[in-house]
Amino acid sequence: MGMVGMKNRNGMDAVKCEDWGYKVDLNLLTTIMDSSVIAACAIPEPHDDIEFESHEAAYSFYKDYAKSVGFGTAKLSSRRSRSSKEFIDAKFSCIRYGNKQQSDDAINPRPSPKIGCKASMHVKRRQNGKWYIYSFVKEHNHELLPAQVHFFRSHRNDDPLKNEVRIRRRKNLSSVSKLFGAYQNVDCLEGYMRNQHDKGRSLVLESGDAQLLLDLFMHMQEENPKFFYAVDLNEEHQLRNLFWVDTKGMEDYRNFDDVVCFDTTYITNKYKIPLVFFTGVNHHVQPTLLGCALIADETVYTFVWLMQTWYMAMGERAPQVMLTDQNNAIKAAIGAVFPQICHCFCLWHILEKIPRQLEYVSLWHDNFMVKFNKCIFKSWTEEQFEKRWWKLLDKFNLREVEWVQSLYGDRKSWVPTFMRDISFAGLSTMLRSESLTSSYDKYVHAETSMREFIKQYKMILEDRYEEEAKADFDAWHETAELKSPSPFEKQMSLVYTHEIFRKFQVEVLGAAACHLKKESQDETTTTYTVKDFEDSQSYVVEWNESKSDIYCSCRSFEYKGYLCRHAIVVLQMSGVFSIPPKYVLQRWTNAALSRHPIGERLDEVQSKVRRYNDLCRRAIILGEEGSLSQESYNIALCAIREALKQCASLNNSAETSACPNTSGSIEEENQYRNTSKERAPDLQVTGTDKVPRRAGAANTKERNHSSAVKKGKVTRSGDASVGAQEGFHLMGISDVGPTQPHNMMPAQLQNVVPTVFHNIMPTQFQNIASTHLHETRLPH
Q1: In this structure, are strands 3-7 and 13-17 parallel, antiparallel, or unpaired?
Q2: Distance set, CA 369 to CA 431, 432, 777 (Å)
Q3: Are the CB atoms for 367 and 353 separated by under 8 Å?
Q4: Interstrand relation of 514-521 and 13-17 (parallel, antiparallel or unpaired)
Q5: Where exactly are the structural domains of the chain?
Q6: Of 93, 225, 266, 531, which one's alpha carbon is 20 to 30 angstroms from that of 668?
Q7: Which residues is 600 bridged to in the sheet?
Q8: Tens digits of per-residue pLDDT, 292-312?
């Protein structure tokens, strides 16, 4: 930014900012300017002593003033001279200037933040070509948000240096993501069978990598003591497996524990670092990083250790659905650690293997895929799938192919026909490029070193925070745009988050291109055929009015979590003009983070969302004011505590006085949640003073009953806490006692469950204390 001295029109000293083209009276600036505060000094409050080179320069000045104060801007109006055609007048305002004007019968109303704010700046052009401030209104009728100002549209690209670096980095990272597809996922079952007993492998790290990881973990734990990490050593006391998760990941899982994707793509594709991710999805359809691991191999042992470690880090709550690759070792581990959950395979994992596994059908590939897709995606009943499957195998002579046999054996884990009443929340897609897990491809490529990955890991966390904060900001400050008079669209506009609403909106508009025909009807269910003219396909929809159950063969609800256009047109033609509550997943609503389930009536949902959004906005104001001084902080904190206490007391009283059967939940996940949220593994492992004890790790009786730990044998032990000040959490898997038949692992896994490890660290970590493992048990 260049600044030069000059005189103003009154002969007084002034300073001109060459980047913006305006002059400021130096007598009005009382702060000494240095390189770090020039911007603040050069953006005083607008006044009539400031001149501009053009109306664009005036708008730049107003934008910078607005950014420093905390509001968004808009160009309200401008006027040209009739003779010279040059601009002579312009008015700029706060984005909330004026009132929203919309007729009741508007078909395509635009979203509007207008709430009657009067803040504005009016500039006019002098005869000499200079522009001056004709009028300025400072007062706003709403809160100002300087901390979140970069989220306003008018300020999102105002930091050229930061944006240039970020854009360049993103371009570089996105280019390497194209390397995906160069490798095919190969399941080497022979290698798995040969190596499943190999418990002596160690993690292959380059020189210095161990220290880099240790430094990362120490840094993360210093920032937040709840940061979790654990290591696994082999019999030679070498590092074998390593797991970690940041506090945000644990918090995200508490809010969105329904679906988790365990991605081993970087292992199977032979990347330089053996990295695996646990990934979820939040209410803005953004990926949540629920844990990372570096693993030495793909044995049953490794995956059992990893699943148990992840389970403990997540507060001993099992997910409802876990998505993985089709892998026998992973399948065995999940069956042992999480026997109650629904384990499914990602569709793209299956589909990407076809060219590799069925090379000799490549001559008929197009024809084969047409038949295959018809069998997989168009089979409405299990009987229909069975008939088409065997016909397909006979046509292409595939009955004796081992991989095809495994697909059929695992059919209930991946074929959409069997996925009724399961919700994948968009995590299972047909293409990897469409999956949320592919977002990591921007940060990790085949030759990424450990040093590079640690930098990229920090960038992953930073980008996730920024994206979620921006989405939250938009949800609180922008209203959804309606594009039709549909009652479904209007009702869900206040319920769904912006991203999900836009996706649902596409389905609402697409219903106009659908034509339905009644095929059959019995005492409870009416079956329709819906012709979708947009994709020239026909779909089967079943509607049970008495139970408000609706199923479509496109399975949008199962895979995406919201109803499709085919179901919407059936509801509309059946005289139902609101989405049945069971098909409104709380995870996609603006109340997704609420610890209380939202009510079943749609108007209750809308009211709760309005209240929730209003409280969030007010909380931002309180945070801004309360953080200005220690005294205001104490006042705000006291008020919050008192209000929270009163609200909790009121809500608890209301719950106590209500009927016993008042789950109050949109029925979306209730039946499945009741079964799948039963505790899976009942783990007992020692913690450190930096990791909080997880609730429900063991019952009181078990905690009070302790005994010794011996190599090769683990008996019941107390849930002791060992103070490892800055150590890794050393974790192993115990043998299962014969007196606990309900905890027994499958017979074939008995010999791969290791004994407890010694409390000895590898050479790289000798200066780091570790903790003892007292007991780890497999799940009920």
Answers
A1: antiparallel
A2: 14, 17, 45
A3: no
A4: unpaired
A5: 51-100+110-149, 204-346+435-477, 347-426, 481-600, 609-647
A6: 531
A7: none
A8: 999 998 899 999 999 999 999
